[in-house]
Amino acid sequence: MRIILRKQFSVIVMMMGLFFSPVYAQYALDEPMTLEGCVNYALQNNPNLQAVKMDELAGEYQIKEIKASGLPQISANGQFVDNFALPSQILPGDFFGQPGESIAVKFGTRYNMTGTVEANQLLFNKSFFTGLKAAKVSQELYQMNTFKNKEDLIYNIAQIYLQLQITDRQKDILTANLERIDQLLEITQVQFEEGIVKKIDVDQLRVNRTNLLTEKQNAELGYSQQLNLLKFYMGMDIRKDLQVAEFVEENQQYPLSDQLVLAENTNLRLLEKQQALTMLELENIRAGYYPSLSAFARYGYQSQTDKLLSSKNGEGSGFWTGSWGLTLQVPIFDGFQKKNQVQQNIIRQDQLRLDIKQATLSSQMEFVNASDEVQLNKALITQQKANMELAEELYGVSSLSYQEGVAPLTELLNAETSLKEAQTQYLTALLQLHLAELDHLKTSGQLAMLIKKSGN
């Protein structure tokens, strides 16, 4: 029996279908879910992505906080003081008609109440304006970090989706092999009962059947574990049922990019944003050498009395107070604190430059490796497919020869072993090709461009 394999699918077609479908995926858990549906569900439910989006939202409020420091700052203060033991001052008795004596005189009133409203307005502070620019870059950094997590999430889901497709095919092949060996075992059992073959032939086929059954059970276990990992990335409850739809290849073909677009490399862009933020931090440190100027205005009321809550004339008095002015702060010497901060910042910038260089080299290496792997596995797919078809034919000949009593069982078992190895090598090459295509999409920057164009 010839094994029928479903049509080979292309990763680039799969990803293009994901990002450029007319209507972005609506998912229904009671139906088999496509890659598009899995990604859409994950973008809405993955806890890690949601947490990163919260960082981005917090960054927006951070910008508003910095802007708020440049607006008028108004505060009100109130104070009540009970001077139950007024301080005394020794004065010469001459003031009181008692020359030559010293007299203790108490000053002040027992109760004092004040209320003041104060307003401050920043007029010039270089650190404030630098902080605004740094906050904007920080917000862009948060947005880029969100994009990176989204890109990684889509990559991981696509990777698991591919593995599920291949594992599903492996189960189909093992099921077909089991059906074939069951038929052969049935024929051999009849031949044994008629005395044509020995019992050892029947037992050997049963051993092979058990081995195939074990492989199928392992494949089913692997499929279940991969499905659970997919649920994890999607943010889905592991206990929920999930069915993955079979990928159907379209007639349309999309080529992989043959160019490395470093400008779309998310890791590099993150490092460059960090470098820009570090340069603004340096600018902010140097802004500390500049003077700052602010204006203030105060207006208040003060009341003094010796008898609380008394309305009699002469027992209490109150008056309004007001003032305004400018405050100028000029830094003179800070013990070389800012100088050392500048040196630390310069070192961090040098480190980031080296990190960018390293990331660039790494991206170039990964792109070349992925391109080589795609080409190699394309060639291997053709070879392994032809090898598998040849192994199927050889097995068919050996099976027919064995049933006719021309060939021994060992020849048939050797053909079966060769067929299983050929099938395994084909599936391995198929998986490696798709994973290499996926890596190529990501390392070239093509995946990032697809996500941007989709608006997701």
Describe, in plain words, how this protein is organized in 3D.
With 456 residues, the chain is of the alpha+beta class. The chain has two domains: 11-46 and 126-290 and 335-454, Outer membrane efflux proteins (OEP) (Up-down Bundle), CATH 1.20.1600.10; 74-124 and 292-330, Outer membrane efflux proteins (OEP) (Single Sheet), CATH 2.20.200. Helix content is 61%, strand content 14%. It contains nine helices and six strands. It has helices at residues 11-19, 35-45, 47-68, 126-193, 199-234, 266-287, 337-403, 409-444, 446-454; strands at 73-82, 88-92, 102-106, 111-124, 292-305, 316-329. A four-stranded antiparallel sheet has the order 1-4-5-6, with no helix packed on it. A two-stranded antiparallel ribbon has the order 2-3. It is elongated. The model has no long low-confidence stretch (mean pLDDT 86).
Characteristic key phrases:
456 residues; alpha+beta; Outer membrane efflux proteins (OEP); 2 domains; 4-stranded antiparallel beta sheet; two-stranded antiparallel ribbon; 9 helices; 61% helix; 14% strand; elongated
Structural class of the secondary elements?
Answer: alpha+beta
Which architecture name of the largest domain does CATH use? Up-down Bundle
Tally of extended strands?
A: 6
CATH class of the largest domain: Mainly Alpha
General shape: elongated
Unreliable segments of 5+ consecutive residues:
none
Using the coordinates shown, work out and report the CATH topology of the largest domain. Answer: Outer membrane efflux proteins (OEP)
The CATH superfamily of the largest domain is known as Outer membrane efflux proteins (OEP)
Determine Rg (CA atoms, Å). Answer: 40 Å
Strand order across the biggest sheet? Answer: 1-4-5-6
Secondary-structure element series: HHHEEEEHHHEEHHH
Integer count of domains: 2
Number of helices: 9
What value does the average pLDDT take?
A: 86
